[in-house]
Design brief:
The chain has 432 residues and is an alpha/beta fold. It has 17 helices and 17 strands. Strands 1, 2, 3, 4, 5, 14, 15, 16 and 17 form a nine-stranded mixed β-sheet that branches. The chain binds zinc ion.
């Protein structure tokens, strides 16, 4: 399979921030084989896409999601701030059947594709369903088999076994799917279980993720239980290294950030989700320490344009500045820097020859994106971009969405079935 995208403006997001006008990208198999400036190649391609008026960019990388959180859109989000409704969250997110989870995973993937996301990092108790949806849907993902927790030692071992089974099933099955390990928080597992998880991650060469220092209550619990904060506790368990992705980190201290930086760990920030809780992630402090970081959307939404906008504003609010950062400092958190946070900077995150062909075409002939100051594409998308501007999505050299029609998922059927199923579950989902 070969594709030529021609007449495009290419915002490469490479190290030099190169932008090419009237350019073409040739895709051969699953890789970007060549970038051309006019004249275009004469050889034959299976598919030629005329991208006049459109901008080719690397696909967005969403470094933290709970895709099945779409269920909360119909429940918790509609009543945000009402504690009685928050109690419904557990009720409405589980337990699901594998088929129900697959359906809502597909609904989530449709949202990701429509907003230009090509790679995401997801955790839930339904890793198999999510992996199946990704396998069929054509996206790229790091997926946890289950949320690991240890209310008692037997539960910890059961979750560990589930994770091992998931890794065995999916690690060699599809290059687009990379298993990982996920625990809700540092306090979710004992030191012994964390050590086992660290060893498993090392043996299998996979990532561990967990939410870090999310609230003052969590910090107090860690102090009481272990006499430590989250990062030093995890570091002592051997978890903090180049295969660790910490999430949120609202209350990370200077010391925590230094330790994460020293161990080459990464961070995932969810500025839009944090804002709903009145919180702002420590993006500037983390980047100033050189910590590889990216943006995620957490639950409720998968829209990276929203994440970008919230990253810009929450960064400025937290630092009390009106003019820093510039949008060009924020935009790479959704592609090139995010790839680095996942250890995938040699494969994805920019449009460069030899990299995997994960890219999107964004239509700039849109009222919300004009007028455009010359070459200020990153600023324009950060401030004003919308999911509806994304026209075409190519992942692993395959056209997954073309002219806003998803090729791999029957979107209409998924939406109808998901709403029907949701409406039928008056008391919440349960096993059949
Ligand atoms: Zn989360």
């Amino acid at each position: 399979m070969s594709i030529l995208v021609q007449n495009a403006t290419i915002v490469t997001m490479d190290a030099k921030n190169s932008i090419y006008h009237q350019a073409a990208v040739a895709i051969s198999g699953n890789k970007i084989s060549k970038i051309y400036q006019e004249p275009y190649p004469q050889e034959k391609f299976d598919t030629i896409i005329d991208a006049k008026g459109q901008v080719l960019l690397p696909g967005f990388i969403n470094v933290h999601t709970h895709g099945l959180g779409v269920l909360l859109r119909g429940r918790s989000a509609a009543f945000w701030g009402n504690p009685a409704r928050h109690a419904d969250i557990a009720h409405f997110t589980g337990p699901l059947t594998a088929d129900t989870a697959l359906l809502f995973a597909q609904l989530f993937l449709c949202e990701l594709l429509r907003s230009g996301c090509t790679t995401f990092v997801d955790s839930s108790d339904y890793g198999d369903s999510m992996a199946q949806a990704v396998d069929d849907g054509g996206l790229r993902a790091m997926i946890a088999g289950t949320n690991i927790k240890e209310d008692n030692p037997a539960m910890g071992q059961e979750k560990l076994q589930q994770s091992k089974d998931f890794i065995r099933k999916w690690q060699a099955k599809n290059d687009r799917i990379q298993p990982m390990l996920h625990a809700e928080a540092a306090s979710s597992c004992s030191p012994a279980l964390w050590q086992e998880l660290a060893q498993l991650a090392k043996d299998k060469n996979i990532f561990i993720t967990t939410h870090l220092a999310q609230s003052t209550e969590e910090l107090a619990l860690m102090k009481e239980k272990y006499g430590q904060n989250c990062v030093s506790y995890l570091a002592d368990c051997g978890v903090i290294n180049g295969h660790f992705l910490g999430v949120d980190g609202i209350h990370l201290t200077e010391e925590d950030l230094d330790l994460l930086a020293d161990r080459a760990a990464s961070l995932a920030f969810n500025p839009a989700a944090n804002a709903l809780h009145g919180q702002m992630p420590p993006i500037a402090p983390a980047l100033s320490k050189g910590i590889a970081s990216g943006l995620g959307t957490d639950s409720l939404s998968g829209d990276m344009f929203k994440a970008l906008r919230h990253a810009l504003t929450s960064w400025r609010m937290r630092e009390h500045t009106a003019d820093a950062p510039q949008p060009e400092e924020v935009f790479p958190l959704a592609n090139s820097l995010a790839a680095k946070a996942l250890g995938k900077e040699k494969e994805i995150g920019s449009i460069e020859e030899g990299k995997l062909a994960d890219c999107i075409l964004v239509d700039f002939q849109a009222p919300n994106l004009l007028p455009l100051y010359p070459d200020k594409y990153q600023a324009q998308l950060t401030h004003f971009g919308m999911a509806s501007n994304v026209q075409t999505v190519i992942i692993d050299g395959k056209i997954i969405m073309r002219n806003r029609i998803i090729q791999t998922i029957d979107e209409k059927a998924v939406m109808q079935e998901a709403q029907k199923l949701y409406a039928a579950q008056k008391g919440g989902f349960s096993h059949e």
